[in-house]
Amino acid sequence: MSPPWCVFNRKAPRWISWSDDNPGRRYYRCSRARTDGDCGFYVWYDPEHTTFMSLDLHNAVWELRSKALEIAELKQINDLLSSENKEKVLVLKAQEKDLEEKNKQLVLLANKFSSGSRCSLFCCGFVMLLIGLFFGLMLGVM
Ligand SMILES: [Zn+2]
């Protein structure tokens, strides 16, 4: 089949439709389609196997769309998870701050202890003295 000629006697090229209603269906369209010189000519090209082909393509297009939907859903889940992760990170950071605070308090306590080490040394000496006295008494009794 030779290609048809459009209104202005130009060879009309063949295209494949990707519309919802006619996916995969072939058609002839003015060679200046979508330009100022478009004469608006188009005619469907329907060989015998086209119905089967278009059904097949229709399924393919449908499948692709459902996959795109799936991907969009996955992306949504991913976004949700990442926002959840952000919350977790915030909680972790709060905990970290809390720990830092506690650590500071511990350091302060440690400083207090070390500054009070003279006192504790004195206490230690006092205890040693008591023990000495105790043993002394024990020995004295024996
Ligand atoms: Zn034309």
From TrEMBL:
Superkingdom as given in the UniProt entry: Eukaryota
Record-annotated membrane-spanning stretches: 119-141
Ranges for domain GRF-type: 6-48
Keywords of this entry: Membrane, Metal-binding, Transmembrane, Transmembrane helix, Zinc, Zinc-finger
Keyword Membrane applies: yes
A Pfam family hit: Zn_ribbon_GRF
InterPro entries named in the record: Znf_GRF (IPR010666)
Any one GO molecular function term: zinc ion binding
Protein name: GRF-type domain-containing protein
